[in-house]
Amino acid sequence: MKIGVIGSGSFGTALGSLLADKGYDVALWCRNDSQVESINRDHINNKHLPNFVLPEKLTASKDLRSVVEGKDMIVSSPPSHALTEILREIKGYLPEKVPIVSASKGIENGTLRLVSEIFESELPGKYHAYLSYLSGPSFAKEIIQKVPTIVSIASKNEATARKVQEIFSFLYFRTYWTPDVVGVEVGGSLKNVIALAAGVSDGLGFGQNTRAALITRGLNEITKIGLKLGADPMTFLGPSGMGDLILTCCGEQSRNRTVGFRLGQGETLEQILASMNEVAEGVKTTKSAYELSQKLGIEMAITNEVYKMLYEGKNPKEVVKDLMKRDLKREGVSV
């Protein structure tokens, strides 16, 4: 089996490494020459994962067409804001009747499209039955280190979901399939917003009580918007819901938690983003999530406050204060 992976960030590289470790021939698309040379010569992604040796069956190329054309499966893992442009470029030579697996997470600014909606609107209908979406609690470095990991594979087509599930399943990587594409997409996107808030809390020096409160109420917000969009509520108790939320809010490898932590420590967003060589999806997703909640008429207090902090310059201490003094509520999810 020949597999093309679009996106050479840490997660795309980790998924490519997993598949190459299983014995598949994997081609990884990179944007710069030094990265291609490092992977092909030294089996190291010098930009994103410099301390890990990659399998020999994983090779790299700057030629997007050669990575995609003639492959038996495509894995798409660019930042969500770059996805539309990439799909428009490759749809002329994208192979037909092969699984297409998306690992991008986010909600597109402006259009407010989920990643699945971007795929379905940008690709012709003949590809739709072969689309699937991978999400769940999975840090890239731990995948490469072969740490036991579980994820969800979502697809509207059961045959596609089961095929992708089988291809990805390995000794240290267990997959669960689900037809709930919307739920998996919403959970994977909005957990990054809550992780920003959890990072701010940690950066301000608050304790685990506060973090647990943010995770709990954050799950409430994710569930509310998911139900409004037609998701299965049980999805949010699975790997791509609660599992990913806990990991992203608590794990020190979480880019979004790190951004929040540094904001809580007093750095500006501009300083933080300028120092990072990978994308923290939650920053852009916060804007889309805020606008989507306004459009749908859903109260999302944490998301609203994170938006004000990122885009209106609100002080992180004021964010926490305003969350704590909100009107008292009844427990539960109501849309």
Automatic annotation (TrEMBL):
Residue ranges of every copy of the Glycerol-3-phosphate dehydrogenase NAD-dependent C-terminal domain listed in the record: 180-321
Residue ranges constituting the Glycerol-3-phosphate dehydrogenase NAD-dependent N-terminal domain according to the UniProt record: 2-160
Catalytic reactions of this protein: sn-glycerol 3-phosphate + NAD(+) = dihydroxyacetone phosphate + NADH + H(+); sn-glycerol 3-phosphate + NADP(+) = dihydroxyacetone phosphate + NADPH + H(+)
Keywords of the record: Cytoplasm, Lipid biosynthesis, Lipid metabolism, NAD, NADP, Nucleotide-binding, Oxidoreductase, Phospholipid biosynthesis, Phospholipid metabolism
GO BP annotation list: carbohydrate metabolic process; glycerol-3-phosphate biosynthetic process; glycerol-3-phosphate catabolic process; glycerophospholipid metabolic process; phospholipid biosynthetic process
EC numbers on record: 1.1.1.94
Keyword Magnesium: no
Residues that hold NAD(+) according to the record: G7, S8, G9, S10, F11, G12, A140, R255
Class of the enzyme per the UniProt entry, highest EC level: oxidoreductase
Pathway(s) per entry: Membrane lipid metabolism; glycerophospholipid metabolism
UniProt-annotated binding residues for substrate: K105, R255, N256
Localization of this protein: Cytoplasm
Sites where the protein binds sn-glycerol 3-phosphate: K105, G136, S138, K191, D244, S254, R255, N256
Active site (UniProt): K191 (proton acceptor)
Regions crossing the membrane: none
Cellular component, GO annotation: cytosol
Entry annotated with the keyword Heme: no
GO MF annotations in UniProt: glycerol-3-phosphate dehydrogenase [NAD(P)+] activity; NAD binding
Main location: cytoplasm
Residues binding NADPH, per UniProt: S10, F11, R31, K105, A140, R255, V279, E281
NCBIfam families reported in the protein's UniProt record: PRK00094.1-2, PRK00094.1-3, PRK00094.1-4
Similarity-based family: Belongs to the NAD-dependent glycerol-3-phosphate dehydrogenase family.
Function of the molecule: Catalyzes the reduction of the glycolytic intermediate dihydroxyacetone phosphate (DHAP) to sn-glycerol 3-phosphate (G3P), the key precursor for phospholipid synthesis.
UniProt name for this protein: Glycerol-3-phosphate dehydrogenase [NAD(P)+]
